[in-house]
Amino acid sequence: MTWWLEALLAASPIALILVAMLLFKRSAATAGAFGLLLTLALTLLHFGFPSLSHLGAPLAAGLAGALAEASFTAASILWIIFGALCIHRLQLHSGAIDTLRTHLGRLTDDPRQMAILIAWFFALFLEGAAGFGTPAALAAPFLVAFGFSAAHAVAITLIGYAVGVSFGALGTPVMAQLASTSFSALEVGRATSEISTWTGALLLALMLWRVHQCAHKLPSPPPRRPSALGWYALAAIAFLLPMALLARYVGPELPTLGGAVVGASLFILAIKYLRPNTPDPSEPTPDTVAPSPTTMPLWKAASPYLIVIALVLLTRQVTPLNTWLRSLDLSWHYLDHFQGRVEPLFHPGTILLLAFLAAARHQAVSLRDTARATTTALRMLLPISLALLAMLSISRLMVHTHMVDALAEAAAHTGSAWPLFAPLIGALGTFVTGSATASNILFTDFQTTTANHLGLNPLRLIGAQGAGAAIGNTIAPHSIIAGCATVGISGDEADVLKRTLLPAAIALLVAGLLVKLLAG
Questions:
Q1: Which of 301, 425, 460, 502 is 20 to 30 A (C-alpha) from 176?
Q2: Which residues cross the membrane (predicted)?
């Protein structure tokens, strides 16, 4: 069978999912079920499991292994979602959300600035420190609390922190690439940042465009403001410049985390001291509402997020504690082709759950309300788990049946135009696997081999892979499912995908043009 027909068959499950969600507005669970049925049919009738051909029953063994991997990964992701849901429900029960809304509303009533603070800096910090779904799970509900519609909140958050995924979870995606290349961490980080810096500026602009689209629908629309160009430029430079410098001169571990800390500090100072006619946060004005004497203290209201930040920094930066937590490793292997691994004490979901329990105590929430928040979160997990399991099953089947390889081989036939499509392969990997790290593991070798075959600089394509994988996070069904779950709109994932697909496409196009220019 010709390579293009192989690629067409391999792409059909992805195409079916997109058509079902975008054209027929089906939920991720329904679209995933259709896509899984088609993937199973292709597996049984055509692709099979080439690496298991030596077994007596390769199809049965392959299906069992792929579904086991999918179930294991789904449980790991659900653990993060569960912790985030518990925190969100606790904040609603305790009234902490109202307190935070009041205090932040006195800092700014401009939805563009609020979105920058939450979906850009706060989400980027969480991505840099923990990654793996934590930003969407915590930041999107925050935007909903300020009046953004649930679908817009998830879309804005996914677009906002996407650039940080390249160096998320203390540089994990870049570290995954080092095993497949002879380049150093600094070289790979530099190559990735040279593309991500520009696509990040574009993604921030596209995020603010989405904010502008829904700003007039907020419960209390702000008064007319001057152009957001200055605040956009400040937010972009305040994060992207430190990110680029850290990636170039320090390494891949701190660009996202460090850039978010530096950028957020500068942006908050600018809001307080540079913005004209900014009200004194210590005194109420006609445009602000003073907290009542019974309002929860600010530190208590923010305690879940402060505890998350403290635990993330402690577990990631204190070496002895880091080593001890990671010493408990739950892993399994099947036929040397299928595996799963999790570090339960080091897992972001465990950090979120500990923050939930500690915050419940600090906020003096009753055991009854704490239990109610927990049971509500558990009830919300059922429809989410079905959607995740379907999408992840498709992912693992496509990897082990070499459908992903067929797509990559087809892309290589573009010849000298390949640099234009290199970021798209990174995004495709994230779309299929739900992880930029997994995408880099899948395709870094392929990008390097293709570069050598075409006489291109392999470092440029490795950077394109990392930058494209980050952009792919905006449209990955797994990320969208997680975000929708925490804001209570499971089943409406198509509305979010509709809002993130165009920004992702624009960012990938610009990334491709940059790679083409840099690769010569």
A1: 502
A2: 6-24, 31-49, 61-87, 114-132, 138-170, 191-209, 229-247, 254-274, 305-325, 376-399, 420-443, 500-519
Is the model's pLDDT at 285 over the cut of 80?
no
Q: What is the C-alpha separation between 163 and 482, in angstroms, rounded?
A: 18
Rounded Cα distance, 130 and 256, in Å: 11
What are the backbone dihedrals phi and psi of residue 230, each rounded to the nearest 5 degrees, phi first?
A: -65, -45
DSSP per position, 270-336: HHHHTSTTPPPTTS--TTS-PPPTTSPPHHHHTHHHHHHHHHHHHHHH-HHHHHHHTT--EEEEETT
Tokens standing for 455?
Answer: 């006489």
**Over the stretch 287-311, which tens digit does the pLDDT of each residue have?**
333 444 446 888 888 888 888 878 8
Domain that holds residue 509: 3-51+58-285+296-519
- Are 191 and 177 in contact, with CB atoms under 8 Å apart? no
HSE-CB for 106 with a 13 A CA cutoff: 17
Q: Buried b / exposed e across 331-346, counting CB within 10 Å, b at 16+?
A: eeeeeeebebebeeeb
% of the chain beyond a pLDDT of 70:
93
- pLDDT value of residue 348: 82
Residue 290 lies in a domain: no
Give the pair of three-digit tokens for residue 131: 């990654």
Is 291 part of a structural domain of the chain? no
Q: Give dist(CA 471, CA 463) in Å, integer.
A: 13
Each residue's pLDDT tens digit, 160-185 = 999 999 998 778 888 888 867 889 88
